Amino acid sequence: MAIAMVAQEVFAEPSDTPGYPARWNLSKTVLSPTEAQAAQMMVGIVASPPMIAAAATAAAGGATDPATMAAAITDDQILGAIRAGWNAVAGVSPDAAQTVQADQAET
Predict the structure, then answer these.
(1) Helix (H, G, I), strand (E, B) or coil at 26
(2) Is 37 exposed, middle or buried (0-12, 13-18, 19+ CB in 10 A)?
């Protein structure tokens, strides 16, 4: 659901957003993903620094069961990880990615 939410945000972006055609195309395809594409998005989410940090904090507190580990990660962290990785998965250049992330931070 979080990926679909971010896809809707990208659909609403102005067409002059850096990397917009690739960002828009990824939005279109993630709303009807293939199994391979869904797996690619999941790797980007799980391997993001906020997700790794949240899991490490939970583990440092002695958590080992999946429910406790999952509870250590907030919806906002999941959405943030998806937003941060969107350009990389879409194939947008790093320069455009930095511009989009800076714009998102301002809002």
Answers:
(1) helix
(2) middle
Q: Residue 70 is encoded by which pair of tokens?
A: 């999952």
Q: Where are the beta strands (DSSP E) in the chain?
A: none
pLDDT one digit per residue (tens) for the chain, 107 residues: 888 899 999 999 999 999 999 999 999 888 887 787 777 777 777 778 878 888 888 888 888 888 887 888 888 888 888 888 888 888 887 776 555 556 656 65
Q: Enter the pTM of the model.
A: 0.62
Contact in structure between 90 and 25 (CB atoms under 8 Å): yes
Rounded Cα–Cα distance for residues 54 and 71 (Å): 10
